[in-house]
Write a structure and sequence with these properties.
This protein has a six-stranded parallel sheet with strand order 3-2-1-4-5-6, with helices on both faces. The chain has a three-stranded mixed sheet with strand order 7-8-9. The chain has two domains: 3-161, NAD(P)-binding Rossmann-like Domain (Rossmann fold, 3-Layer(aba) Sandwich), CATH 3.40.50.720; 169-217. It contains ten helices and nine strands. The protein is α/β, with parallel strands linked by helices. Helix content is 50%, strand content 16%. It has helices at 10-21, 37-41, 66-75, 78-81, 96-109, 122-126, 138-151, 163-191, 197-206, 212-218; strands spanning 3-6, 26-29, 45-46, 58-61, 87-90, 112-115, 118-119, 130-134, 152-157. It comes from Serratia rubidaea.
Length: 219
Amino acid sequence: MKIGFAGLGGMGRAMAHNLLQAGYPLTVWNRSPQAAQPLVDAGAQLAAQPADLAGVDILFTMLANDAALEQVVVTSGLLAQMQPGAAHVNMATISVALAQRLAALHQQHGVGYLAAPVLGRPDVAAAGRLNILAAGDPALLARVQPLLDVLGQRTWSFGERPEQANIVKIAANFTLASAIEAMAEGSALVRNHGVSGADYLQMLTGTLFAAPPIRATVR
């Protein structure tokens, strides 16, 4: 099975490294080629342009935003050149509108499409402990699950339409931001009564709000 990976920022580089370490033949691409060099040194092949990934069986992308993903996958001609039966697993957080459009475009080209955004920071990605929020064709999810198991501690399935995973990720981000805002309001309240805001936040992140993303943000 030939694997491709486009997007080698802090998250993507860690995820691609784990796939390489698991023994999968890997071809990588990044807008700044120097980011790919550690992976090339470890045995990955370097694609000179996105379209050079068209021959892979499974393409992973972890790109910054909607515009970057559309440029790399669609505008570059990569999707149009992928072989029928190949699959694309997009692990970035993108809009619902683009997720729907990508699903339709992939179907037109006979290429599978799975949305699989993640919860976790780069250190969690490096440890292979991401939580993966997946949606798409159940048969495709089953096909790529061994690869997802390399990348994460658990895959959560949220439906057969790819955009369902993206809306779950957006909702999770909103929930996290709301919790942090509520903690800030609570901190202001206790400080007005002479209580240390730092002590209050330490208590919260050690009890009610002990999730790693919250602790990392408010420490």
